[in-house]
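The instructor's notes for this session suggest beginning with a concrete chain rather than abstract definitions. Hand out the sequence below and ask the class to guess, before any prediction is shown, which regions might be ordered.
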Amino acid sequence: MIRRELLSMKKIMLMAAVCLGLSVPSYGQVSLTIDKAMEIAEEHSPSLRRSHMNLERYQQNLVAQRASLKSKFSLNLNPVDYSKSRSFDNRLSQWYTNERFSTTGTFQVDQPILWTDGVLSLINRFGWQDNNSNIDGTKTSNKAFSNDLYLQLSQPIFTYNKRKMELQQIEYDYENA
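After discussion, reveal the predicted structure:
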């Protein structure tokens, strides 16, 4: 009796497997368009994959080179600088105390020049200080603000058009890829 039940269970399992096999569609052949064939070739062909990666690399190099020609802004701050010193003045034979509190900063804009490989910079150095001095009980105080704004041109002598040539070379590499 157990054998019959086991045999009938096997038959039921076999019938279920056959039904499942028939219900799942199988694709033996697929119609292939030229676009689909090119897509499959691009995914699996080493030379086409290498060409695609080279194209992307040259494109990113071109973007990076063009970005390097844009203005660069920088801000450098020294928010707090404090010093206190006490020293002996030999000329006057007196003790001298100096206390200084200051803050400084530099704002700079650098603009590369494509045609000459130079860099034109606009620089603003600014600061504030509070200076207190004490010589044998005589106190002096000075508060001051300073601001230096100037243009600076850094021009290399022997590298004329280097940036422009590099940019053209990257553009040609991208075009060839």
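Then share the key points. Residues 64-176 form one domain. The CA atoms of residues 117 and 159 lie 7 Å apart.
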